[in-house]
Amino acid sequence: MITANPEHRSGTVAIVGRPNVGKSTLLNAALGQALAIVSPVPQTTRNRILGVVRRPGAEIALLDTPGIHKPYSRLGRTLNRTAREATGDADAVLYVTTGGPKATVHPGDRTLLADVGEDVPTVLVLNQVDRVKDKSVLLPLLAELGTLRDFAAVIPISALHNDGVDLVLDEVAKVLPSGPARFDEDMLTDRPVRFFAGEFVREQILLSTREEIPHAVAVEVTSFQEKPNAVVIEATIHVERDGQKRILIGKGGEKLKAVGTAARGRIEELLQKKVHLTLWVRVTADWTESESALADLGYGRDPT
Ligand code: GDP
Ligand code: MG
Fold first, then answer.
1. 201-249 pLDDT, tens digit each
2. Is the CB of 99 inside a 6 Å radius of any atom of ligand 1?
3. If pLDDT is split at 50, 70 and 90, which confidence band does 100 have?
4. Is residue 127 within 6 Å of ligand 1 at its C-beta?
5. 3-state secondary structure the chain
6. Which of 7, 23, 133, 216 is the most buried (most CB within 10 A)?
């Protein structure tokens, strides 16, 4: 006879917050694997990414989301919609913010928190506390944040140094509904490796270019073939203008080569297999404003 274990909890938890506060870094720390790409560029995350974390007595399906921001393109509006839809589907929310030098509540946090449903249990995570030398300056901020809603818990952490992340998971597990595990034991994410191959290429571009280029780049994996001893991948990097293409390729193709080498390393680590990666750069004018191009590049409405 199979009996339900009333002690076991499971559910979906959306990681929500402004851009660049460390949502993806938190997902990676919780998973113990650098799955989601991270960079100092806002809007690094463009898709909702599921990562399944198991704790004693709980299965937590974390959803990384794009940071909600003032959109400047159709892509930006799509990212905000993706984040809001993930929040709407979640059993609980991990709301991530940071304490800046002035340590007052960011106006964006007030707006975003007001959007989270009243009945959705929310854990507040104050991230990047490693950047604050005198931790006592955080106390008034924590107190002020605590007045914004009735949080299930308020936890200062450093996602980058994996400090406090276990506590966050323990607290969020407590507010999940009771229920059995819903994912296979060895399942880490719902996205295929092919998706992460494209993301790892984009990550290297974000880390090595400036200004408008990170926002003008999309990576499309056009071929992904598993051979006995290696995986052979081809990807096209879409940019919006000729000048961007020139910069990305670099003198004698050096820039593109460096991007490819670094991305290949990340993919090999994930796959534990040798990878052959070929990159192409193509101008797809105004893809950030075209609904059909956005859909083709994987930024349309979520399939799930
Ligand atoms: P997201 O846009 O909210 O997903 O933020 P990311 O996870 O991409 O992180 C944005 C930047 O903040 C990256 O450069 C991270 O390395 C950095 N970051 C994230 N968490 C921490 C932290 O706890 N401490 C410090 N010092 N930096 C962090
Ligand atoms: Mg992110």
1. 999 999 999 899 999 999 999 999 999 999 999 999 999 999 999 999 9
2. no
3. low
4. yes
5. CCCCCCCCEEEEEEEEECCCCCHHHHHHHHHCCCCCCCCCCCCCCCCCEEEEEEECCEEEEEEECCCCCCCCCHHHHHHHHHHHHHHHHCCEEEEEEECCCCCCCCHHHHHHHHHCCCCCCEEEEEECHHHCCCHHHHHHHHHHHHCCCCCCEEEECECCCCECHHHHHHHHHHCCCECCCCCCCCCCCCCCHHHHHHHHHHHHHHHHCCCCHHHHCEEEEEEEEECCCEEEEEEEEEECCHHHHHHHHCHHHHHHHHHHHHHHHHHHHHHCCEEEEEEEEEECCCHHHCHHHHHHCCCCCCCC
6. 23
